[in-house]
Write a structure and sequence with these properties.
InterPro entries: Beta-ketoacyl_synthase, Ketoacyl_synth_C, PKS_Beta-ketoAc_synthase_dom, Thiolase-like. This protein is of the alpha/beta class. Helices cover about 35% and strands about 20% of the residues.
């Protein structure tokens, strides 16, 4: 977790809260960014928030994020923003992605951030792939940020 308390409704322009939450999840797990197969992004479809999250993911995951090896999607478009329950439902999607070996699709995504090339799951189909580790991002009002990292059993 992290708390940047930058603004009541928008993240800091440099993504420091999101970056810190993702880095802490990786550090506490003992995994490297290249060990993560899938990210369930917070992605509320706001121009500013989504751009900052995308840049934060690119910062933390570097070449792994832009290589197409990392699957990235948002399930919020399918469920709506569930406010306080959003993080739990998205964490369940991350766990199910590991269990079923399927990265969920991102509905209504027509213009993904070009920096991620093939990382976003397609608009119309989920991506079948082995998923050993998945990260679920939840970034809330007031700069409250949480990233949960789940792995498959050994």
């Amino acid at each position: 977790m992290s708390g940047d308390a930058y603004h009541i409704t928008q993240p800091h322009n440099d993504g420091r809260g999101a970056i810190l939450a993702m880095q802490r999840a990786l550090e506490q797990s003992g995994l490297l960014s290249s060990d993560i197969d899938y990210i369930n992004a917070h992605a509320t479809s706001t121009t500013l928030g989504d751009a900052i999250e995308a840049k934060s993911i690119e910062y933390v995951f570097a070449n792994h994020a832009t290589s197409g090896a990392l699957a990235l999607s948002s399930t919020k478009g399918a469920t709506g923003h569930l406010l306080g329950a959003a993080g739990s439902v998205e964490a369940i999607f991350a766990v199910l992605a590991i269990h079923h070996g399927i990265a969920p699709l991102t509905i209504n995504l027509e213009k993904p951030d070009p920096c991620f090339h093939g990382s976003f799951t397609p608009l119309t189909a989920s991506k079948e792939m082995p998923i050993r580790a998945a990260l679920s991002n939840s970034f809330g009002f007031g700069g409250t940020n949480a990233s949960l990292l789940f792995t498959s059993p050994p």
